[in-house]
Amino acid sequence: MSETRTASEEAVEGGRGTDTARTDGRPVAPLWWVWLAAWPVTAVFVLSNAATPLYVLWQRDIGFSKGTLTVVFASYIVGLIGSLLVSGVVSDRVGRKPVLLPALALALAACLIFATATGVAALLVARLFSGIAVGAVVSAGMAAVTDVAGPGRKRLAALLASCAMVFGAGLGPLLAGVLSEVAPAPTVTVFVVEAVLLVTALLAVLRMPVRRPEARGRRVWVRVPGVPRGSGRRLALGIAVFAPGITATSFVLSLGPSLLSGLLGTTSRIVAGAMAFVMFLAATGVQFAVQRLSRRIILTAGAVSTTLSMVTLIVAVHTSSVPVLVASALLAGAGQGMGQLGGLSLLNAGVPPERLAEANAALNVGGYIPAGVLPVSAGYLSDAVGLTGGATIFGCVLLGLAVIGGLVVLATRRGVTDPA
């Protein structure tokens, strides 16, 4: 199969049926199964950010500071990173379904806890469970999309898996924002709807055409995820751009509603949810727009977008401008989207299938650690020096990291010139 064909051409061929043999002798799954395999990723990521517009309600009813709010947000990161230490290795060893099914069950438990939460402890547990489920999905779930797609559609698989992640992450806060304004018992209704989505994802995983991997020698079950020898450069380049991008979007998710209500005077939960939605819509759309460009251009553009996002964030908090804050969110989404697509594409092209889930986990560990630490620091800093000062310091730090990531990509040529 020629490496110069586009993802759309591969998709057309992939949709003709199952009578085309894979390189391992198994039939190729039809194209609709490749799309359906991405649905569990979307459903779980809806949960990951569904709580975003509801934090102001819980703050009002329970009573906690912006620092506590970012700790609640970061408990998700703790669960996610802990899950990534296990789920990638386990998925590569025992298969995708044995990891995805318990993850979806845990996500359903998180919905129940969210819907009945009456204190900060319950929110922490629900966010922790959500993070564990997301950690399993970004390793096993995204690798499952590649497995279903087959060797000839790796670029399509990378695109669909990445877009499923960011689309779900954006759909969650929009859905929660709208339902919390128009439906009764908003903190209950939102998670009942999400539970229905998760049940459909559970059914999709049960029927997903993926096979158990062949038995291999003994391996450590819990370890820091990594990549095979020779792929470290690919992982480092992806993290250099993806980490600042997802940290920028994490800041918008954790403190965006507080910025809108406390600093900019906008209290509508629909506005807060819509801002998060358009941020991730930008992350989804930009990936389709740039998929035919070289990975080097995609990663460089992602770093530039994150840099501009931080510039506009600083301007927004000093001018109390909602449109500028929305522009910052859009640029943050584009930065995460391009960093994510570039990173996943590099790994899909250079990592063998039996290590791909672990490699995906490694990319996300590298991204989510700063995405947890920096927004929490900004939250407590905002309690101490004010929201304007905290957001400004956060923006300057992340701006520097994004610039460094872009310079690292520009200084590297090997392995990043091929199309994503």
Task: Give the helix/strand layout.
Layout: H1 7-14, H2 31-37, H3 39-50, H4 55-62, H5 66-94, H6 97-116, H7 120-149, H8 154-182, H9 186-207, H10 232-263, H11 269-290, H12 295-319, H13 322-350, H14 356-385, H15 387-410
Helix pairs in contact: 2-7, 3-7, 3-8, 3-9, 5-7, 5-14, 6-7, 6-9, 7-8, 7-14, 8-9, 8-11, 8-13, 10-11, 10-12, 10-13, 10-14, 10-15, 11-13, 12-13, 12-15, 13-14, 14-15
Keyword list:
mainly alpha; 420 residues; disordered N terminus; Growth Hormone, Chain: A; single chain
Give structural notes.
With 420 residues, the chain is mainly alpha-helical. The protein is built from 15 helices and no strands. The protein has helices at 7-14, 31-37, 39-50, 55-62, 66-94, 97-116, 120-149, 154-182, 186-207, 232-263, 269-290, 295-319, 322-350, 356-385, 387-410. It is globular. The chain is 78% helix and 0% strand. The chain has one domain: MFS general substrate transporter like domains (Growth Hormone, Chain: A, Up-down Bundle). Mean pLDDT is 83; it is low at 1-25. This is MFS transporter.
Overall, the morphology is: globular
Helical residues, percent: over 70%
Tell me the number of helical segments per DSSP (H or I, 4 or more residues long): 15
Order of SSEs: HHHHHHHHHHHHHHH
Class derived from helix and strand content? mainly alpha
**How large is the share of residues in beta strands?**
under 5%
Largest sheet: none
Mean pLDDT: 83
Q: Radius of gyration, rounded?
A: 20 Å
- CATH 2nd-level architecture: Up-down Bundle
What number of structural domains do the residues give? 1
CATH topology: Growth Hormone, Chain: A
Q: Count the strands?
A: 0
Q: Low-confidence segments, ≥5 residues, pLDDT <50?
A: 1-25
CATH superfamily annotation: MFS general substrate transporter like domains
